[in-house]
Amino acid sequence: MAPRLLLYTRTTAYRHASIPAAVAAVRTLGEFEADHTEDPAVLERPLDPYAAVVFLSTSGEVLTPAGRARLAAYVEGGGGFVGVHAAACTEDDWPYYGELLGARFDRHPAHQPGRAVVEDRDHPATRHLPPVWEFTDEWYDFRTNPRPAVRVLVRADESSYEGGGMGDDHPLAWCRGQGAGRVFYTALGHAAEAYDDPAFRAHLLGGITWAAAPRP
After folding, report:
1. Which of 31, 107, 192, 216 is surrounded by the most beta carbons within 10 Å?
2. SS3 121
3. 35: CB partners within 8 A, 6+ apart
4. Mean pLDDT of the 188-205 span
């Protein structure tokens, strides 16, 4: 049977218009079966049937206390977690979530073209990318730099766009372990057009595939 993903898109703060495009894109990536929900009660149920839980531009407080406990136990026990774009604007009141993801959103400049530098091409999310990736997005700044607690895959070149606030070391996509589980996060994916872009689709597929891989 194909591995299953749980796609979660609940928002209680800013809602991205790209969410339907994001869900549609993930449904067509790879050989996954995907369940999509915005019902927090679904996260209170056993998550073991899923190879990974994907937060697609969630925002605000989106989990109940029982859902928080269930998600933490799932990842600690070996489940995969993927955060896309506004997933970094999620669950500010839950300290564990900030640790899980690796960093929290601070601010962003205008949506604009820029350059991403691929630091680590030895990963399914980046091995298809050129050393310098031209892309258009919001170029999220984070409250803290997640390095060295994460494996940075891609960083922003702030000289290529206006309004960056983190300087020369500005991680954009990374992965990390949490307990027995795997976590992948990409700050990219603001606009619906991103989900039609072949390079971004391959980036997303690679990250999900890595997080959802069976554990030894």
Report:
1. 192
2. coil
3. 4, 5, 6, 7, 50
4. 98
